[in-house]
Inverse folding.
């Protein structure tokens, strides 16, 4: 492995254009003009791929990182033969995030959330003596637990109790990782609320979610993998979404490639999907509303209970914020599909039969949306298509390894008393 040189970049607010340095885990515009994402602007306008660096860090020229961490895998892109033939497609490329050693895919948690975790945890950080706080519906928790455990980074992870089955590992998790949960019947939004309370404790700081440039640019490595493999920007980008952060990241990576100039001038159409009946982003987009539509908490939790792809259950996504999903969709074009559990299950079976590996429910939703788009005729069969398989190989990994589950140290009620939260969490550290 070659020596690592800190990536040179600065930050820019998308509401006012202000450019500033990344001094202390910046998540917002320093002027606080209005709710807005900030974006990393890299000194290297052309992507430099350094194969001497491990895993994800070969893309470090477009990652806001100042070090490498051990254990990183990377997205792997290959031209589909089996699924493409089944669907009558001539240029279908699969970007696989997960465990598939035969393809060179070595993400042991089986999810592209590792791309986030290895980027976020390697970002410049003045809070190194503090505790990072992460909220998750499951996959993000598993990825951050692995990365933080292996690299001794203190972290507090908040998840819904009903999603604890996502917290599986093949190795013992270091005590620097503390897991807490919100009682059964809660969802991702409740985990976010608990994490926000924890961030009021001195020495605790938010990972930041979609506002963290390292999270988005880590997820954007899926597009870096695809474009550098294909040799051009795809025409269509298919992915299932919960928050839509991965789709925002894909759009931002696309914009960087346009500035790079070596991969064409295409803007990928964002072909996104949600697991019905929980489709709040689709509802807002179909109504051409920048704001999310009103949603009853009880009804939302009931819908989340019904969907198989639990990780696609964000009730407060970065949709309306400047630089968020609404802006991405308006700029790039595309559509959002509603996919039933049965359609996703059928798609997962088809992928396994034609490509030879298992995929997780959210990825199956994306495959089902591709099938739907082909059947409806809204995708040219000769177009260059990127299918982002956001998680897979989990069953394969579990067959090959002894699995242990991480248990929460505390379980809080749906509407916990803030003072009680502060006192109990402080005792964990």
């Amino acid at each position: 492995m070659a020596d690592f040189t800190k990536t040179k970049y600065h930050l820019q607010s998308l509401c006012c254009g202000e450019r500033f340095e990344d001094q202390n885990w910046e998540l917002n515009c320093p002027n606080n003009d209005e709710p807005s994402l900030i974006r990393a602007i890299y000194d290297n306008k052309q992507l430099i791929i350094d194969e001497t660096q491990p895993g994800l860090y070969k893309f470090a020229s477009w990652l806001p990182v100042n070090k490498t961490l051990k254990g990183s895998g990377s997205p792997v892109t290959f031209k589909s033969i089996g699924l493409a033939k089944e669907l009558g497609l001539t240029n279908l490329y699969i970007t696989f995030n997960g465990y598939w050693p035969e393809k060179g895919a070595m993400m042991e948690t089986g999810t592209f959330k590792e791309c986030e975790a290895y980027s976020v945890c390697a970002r410049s950080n003045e809070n190194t003596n503090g505790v990072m706080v992460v909220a998750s519906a499951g996959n993000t928790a598993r990825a951050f637990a692995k990365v933080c455990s292996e690299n001794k980074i203190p972290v507090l992870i908040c998840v819904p109790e009903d999603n604890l089955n996502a917290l599986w590992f093949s190795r013992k998790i270091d005590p620097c990782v503390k897991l807490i949960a919100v009682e059964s019947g809660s969802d991702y939004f409740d985990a976010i609320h608990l994490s926000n309370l924890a961030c009021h404790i001195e020495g605790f700081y938010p990972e930041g979610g979609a506002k963290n440039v390292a999270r988005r640019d880590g997820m954007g490595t899926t597009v870096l993998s695809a474009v550098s493999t294909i040799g051009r920007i795809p025409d269509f980008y298919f992915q299932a979404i919960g928050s839509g952060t991965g789709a925002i990241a894909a759009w931002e990576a696309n914009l960087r490639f346009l500035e790079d100039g070596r991969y064409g001038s295409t803007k990928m159409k964002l072909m996104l999907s949600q697991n019905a009946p929980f489709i709040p982003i689709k509802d807002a987009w179909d109504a051409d509303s920048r704001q999310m539509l009103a949603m009853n908490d009880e009804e939302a939790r009931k819908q989340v209970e019904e969907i198989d792809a639990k990780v696609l259950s964000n009730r407060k996504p970065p949709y309306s914020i400047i630089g968020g999903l609404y802006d991405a969709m308006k700029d790039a074009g595309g559509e959002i599909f509603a996919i039933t559990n049965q359609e996703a299950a059928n798609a997962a079976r088809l992928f396994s039969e034609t490509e030879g590996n298992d995929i997780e429910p959210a990825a199956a939703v994306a495959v089902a949306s591709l099938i739907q788009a082909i059947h409806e005729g809204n995708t040219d069969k000769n177009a260059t298509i990127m299918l982002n398989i956001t998680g897979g190989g989990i069953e394969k990994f579990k067959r090959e390894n002894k699995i242990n589950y991480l248990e929460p140290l505390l379980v809080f009620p749906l509407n916990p008393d803030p003072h009680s939260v502060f006192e109990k969490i402080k005792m964990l550290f």
In short: Residues 245-260 form the longest helix (16 residues). The domain at 76-110+215-398 is CATH 3.40.50.1100 (Rossmann fold). DSSP finds 14 helices and 17 strands in the chain.
